[in-house]
Structure formats: C-alpha cells, structure tokens
Amino acid sequence: MKKFIEPFQYITHELGNLSHVRQAELACQAGAKWIQYRRLNQPDEVLLEDIAKIAGICDDWGTTLIVTDHVHLNGRADIQGFHIEDMNADFLQLRAALGPDVTLGGSANTTEGLLRLAAEGADYAGLGPFAATRTKPNNYPQLGTNGYRQAIQLLREQQPDFPVVAVGGIAAADVPALMETGIYGIAVSAAVYDAPDFEVAYLQLYNLVKGA
C-alpha cells in the first residue's frame, strides 16, 4: 500500500526551551504537513500526554503525525505512523505487528540499508547523517552531497520508487544541491529550531524543497 510521504519533514527535539507541543504548533502554523515526534527515554504517560496534544494540533491542520520508535503505543493515540531509528530492527516483524495501514519509516546510513528497508516493508527511509548534528549525535559516516548522489543512483536500479529523505545537520544552504541528487526530500530540526524566527526558517526550507 503506497502511503503519503511528505518531502519536507520537521522532527521535534528537546535541546532548547520550546516544548515538543509548542514546536508542533509553530511548525503547523507555518504549514507543516509532517511532524515527527522524537522524545526518547520517557514514561508512557508523558509520551501519551504529549502525543494527545500534538495529535489534536495535527488534526486541526491536516498534518501527519509520526512517532519515533515507541511502536508499543500503536492504537493508544491518534498516530499515523512510526519511524524506527534502530538500523538493525526487524522490519518484517514490525510490519506484521503494525499491519499494512500504519506508515513505517526507518533510518539508514548506506545503500544496503535502504534496500533492506524497502524489501522488508518500510514506506520510506531517512538517510543520514548529511553532516555533523547536535540533535542526534552519532558515529556514522557523514554522507555529504556525493554520498547521497551515489546512494540514490544505486537505489534507483533496484527500488526506483522508494522515498528517501536526507537528514542530519542540514542547513538551508545545503538544500538545493541535496535535492539535485535525486533525494525525495529532507527532514530537519535544528535548522528551524535554532533560527531567529521559527516560521521564517520553516518556510524558507519548505520553499527550497518544494521548489526543487
């Protein structure tokens, strides 16, 4: 079943003063059609309280709500899908547990990872990191523009319709060259959150992605 995958995705985080709920509200006011709620290491009651509020905001704006990991919350809130960060997760098992209607995305750092996700039932992949990122520190190789170009070229030979979103340390200045690699879209957090004006930054990035 082919799902709606938005080319420009905002990922919430907790590095600053804005709550996840407020981030979702600001992003939706700026026109967001995809919010990925990323909050780890919290009890279910905290997560569900956030998700209930964010889901209400997303419903008002017609925005897709994706939750990072926490698949055990499926059916307990108005969640359209899940993004799994564990690159070794069993997506065949996850798809079987979630069913065909739930949007399921995963993280990858290589073309091989992308191909596995596509083969095991993921609807899209987040490929990264593009560059260094403080939002999600990791030791994976930074791909840069050339890394995305090579990965997408190889992927298209076997999975031409599989959506791949670039993620990790992306700034507005990087977007035009990234979109020229054939990538489906981008996902950001700090590029919007850390900007002097949240809405202005969101709209700038949105227009760069949509205008590509």
Automatic annotation (TrEMBL):
Domain of life according to the entry: Bacteria
Known pathway: Cofactor biosynthesis; thiamine diphosphate biosynthesis
GO cellular component: cytoplasm
Record keywords, A-Z: Thiamine biosynthesis
PANTHER family cross-referenced by the UniProt entry: THIAMINE-PHOSPHATE PYROPHOSPHORYLASE, THIAMINE-PHOSPHATE SYNTHASE
Gene3D superfamilies per the UniProt record, alphabetical: Aldolase class I (3.20.20.70)
GO molecular function annotation: thiamine-phosphate diphosphorylase activity
InterPro entries: Aldolase_TIM, ThiamineP_synth_sf, ThiamineP_synth_TenI
Thiamine phosphate synthase/TenI domain sequence ranges: 18-192
SUPFAM superfamilies with a match to the protein in the record: Thiamin phosphate synthase
Source organism of the structure: Pedobacter yulinensis
Protein's name according to its UniProt entry: Thiamine phosphate synthase
GO biological process: thiamine biosynthetic process
